[in-house]
Automatic annotation (TrEMBL):
Official protein name in the record: L-ascorbate oxidase
Top EC class of this enzyme: oxidoreductase
Gene transcribed to yield this protein: LOC110711978
The protein's assembly and partners: Dimer.
Record EC number: 1.10.3.3
InterPro entries: Cu-oxidase-like_N, Cu-oxidase_2nd, Cu-oxidase_C, Cu-oxidase_fam, Cu_oxidase_CS, Cu_oxidase_Cu_BS, Cupredoxin, CuRO_1_AAO
Species name: Chenopodium quinoa (Quinoa)
Length: 553
């Protein structure tokens, strides 16, 4: 196995992701951060230096399970302390599984500030993927606001809350166009034609192809908020990978991707080679106020400046949930993939609600809105620091008479920092139950992401989950994933084998939702975790423990 050694500086810098200059969080002067490419079994070693000046930072390696290195998961308050300005933390971990992944900040709302990049793991040399392709592209998708994340954060915490609103621009590999469009007057924009010299930070990245070849397009979404849909004019896509797991190939004309998810699709460049084709990415699940992101599938031989003859594909209507569900329900694991145990040892039912605390708007799970404690759970659980977090475990279910279809009679909730203690090597089912939000007739999409494990998605359903629904679980070929969505007023059933000791976050991947409390922490056989670097725990009560003395001599 190779060791890939990187030295990264995280810093604020001026950048024009959508042709308007703002401040972004970059790495080594780049936005998005550098792409990591490695082979299965390689070691990634990143010496991360915080050059932000006034705030801490951590980086989470989304989709990497961190087997035997739970302290390298990069979640502030859970797996480590934020790295202080000027200090360096060494992330060292094995990439044990092939697939399309990414990394991002996991402290406050730093992901929305632009702290992200791609992480691609290839098969060991000599091994072949179960599908053929001649070339590949990598598209990291994100959404972008002109307001700074600090302003957004203050807005979310304020009373009355100032919601961040819809993004100004969608970015493909950190590039989008705000004040102009590649295709003027398309979507809900009334902008003029973009003129690029080609070296602008916001110039679109074209996908240049030759005719009659197969290309793999890797897609990953690190959006703060937006659910997206991608389509390529005239070209069908064959879905082959989801979250680093092979799926039974199936063909689509467009594909939904939620924050935290990744896919690989294959396209065949078998269309008329004398023209270019639009790639269009639009917003789903929320009323779109953001124009679609555009790029070109550019057939070499045609000028890259030549615009397609047809107009860009139109994103399905934002609230056409049947379209979303029908896509999601087509995803099955590739034959020969691991199948889940037939039964669970423990079932956790998580009711997702929007609530109020003293007039502030929050999100809760089983009526507890999560707050991040100052001491990382990995240390406080390991060393039994009883004052570091709520000792009472949070509820495993919600009152059965709760009406998920309507507004709660009393939307008030409380904050909490308790953990779900999970026994080693047990099979755990999690039922995510959606409900009505604060407003009448409103229920939102939430993409839930688990750290440290993949889970099988056993099924989706409408309304309230009941015991009888268990009989309908797909135990034959459920997809393995690390992120799964719950649809409005519906439920999603997940199963995983708790075989990776550590303190793991499980949360909605919509950044403001997590910020408003939409997450839980699982503490899993932390007593088995050995060799935590003290650097990871040099804050809160663990720091005090290391120092022992109250006053220094
Ligand atoms: Cu990609 Cu906990 O997040
Ligand atoms: Cu959410």
């Amino acid at each position: 196995a190779r060791v890939h050694h990187y030295k990264w500086d995280v810093e604020y810098m001026f950048w024009s992701p959508d042709c308007e200059e703002r401040v972004v969080m970059g790495i080594n002067g780049q936005f998005p951060g550098p792409t990591i490419r490695a082979h299965v079994g390689d070691i990634i070693h990143v010496d991360l230096t915080n050059k932000l000046g006034t705030e801490g930072v951590v980086i989470h390696w989304h989709g990497i399970r961190q087997l035997n290195t739970p302290w390298a998961d990069g979640t502030a308050s859970i797996s480590q302390c934020p790295i202080n300005p000027g200090q360096t933390f060494a992330y060292r971990f094995v990439v044990d599984k092939v697939g399309t992944y990414f990394y991002h900040g996991h402290y406050g709302m730093q992901r929305s500030a632009g702290l992200y990049g791609s992480l691609i793991v290839e098969l060991p040399k000599g091994q072949n993927e179960p599908f053929h392709y001649d070339g590949e592209f990598n598209l990291l998708l994100s959404d972008w606001w002109h307001q700074s994340v600090h302003e957004q954060e203050v807005g979310l915490n304020s009373k009355p809350m100032r919601w961040i609103g819809e993004p100004q621009t969608l970015l493909i590999n950190g590039r989008g166009q705000y004040n102009c469009s590649l295709m003027p007057n398309f979507g809900n924009s009334s902008s003029t034609q973009c003129k690029f010299k080609g070296n602008e930070q916001c110039a679109p990245q074209l996908l240049s192809v030759v005719p009659n070849k197969t290309y793999r397009v890797r897609l990953a979404s690190t959006t703060a908020l937006a659910s997206l849909n991608i389509a390529i004019g005239n070209h069908k896509m064959i879905v082959v990978e989801a979250d680093g797991n092979y799926v039974q190939p199936f063909e689509v004309e467009n594909l939904d991707i939620y924050s935290g998810e990744s896919y690989s699709v294959l396209i065949n460049t078998n269309q008329n080679p004398n023209q270019n084709y639009w790639i269009s990415i639009g917003v789903r699940g929320r009323q779109p106020k953001t124009p679609p992101a555009l790029s070109l599938l550019h057939y070499k031989g045609v000028s890259a400046k030549e615009l397609p003859t047809n107009s860009p594909p139109i994103t399905p209507v934002w609230n056409d949930y049947n379209h979303s569900k029908s896509f999601t329900k087509k995803i099955f694991s590739l034959m020969g993939s691991p199948t889940p145990p037939n039964r669970f040892d423990r079932q956790l039912v998580f009711l997702n609600t929007q609530n109020k605390i003293d007039g502030h708007i929050k999100w809760s799970i089983n009526n507890i809105s999560f707050v991040f404690p100052p001491t990382p759970f990995l240390g406080s659980v390991k060393f039994g620091l009883k004052h570091a977090f709520d000792q009472k475990s949070p509820p495993e279910d919600y009152p059965r008479d709760y009406d998920i279809m309507n507004q709660a009679p009393n939307p008030n909730t409380t904050t909490g920092s308790g953990v779900y203690k999970i026994e080693y090597n047990t099979t755990v089912d999690i039922i995510l139950q959606n409900a009505n939000a604060l407003n009448a007739n409103t229920s939102e999409i939430h993409p839930w992401h688990l750290h440290g494990h993949d889970f099988w998605v056993l099924g989706y359903g409408e309304g309230k989950f009941t015991k009888e629904d268990e009989a309908k679980f797909n135990l034959k070929n459920p997809p393995l994933r690390n992120t799964a969505v719950i649809f409005p007023y519906g439920w999603t059933a997940l199963r995983f084998v708790a075989d990776n000791p550590g303190a793991w976050a499980f949360h909605c991947h919509i950044e403001p939702h997590l910020h408003m409390g939409m997450g839980v922490v699982l503490s899993l056989a932390v007593d088995r975790v050995k060799g935590i670097p003290s650097d990871a725990l040099s804050c809160g009560l663990t720091a005090k423990m290391f120092l022992k003395k109250k006053y220094l001599p």
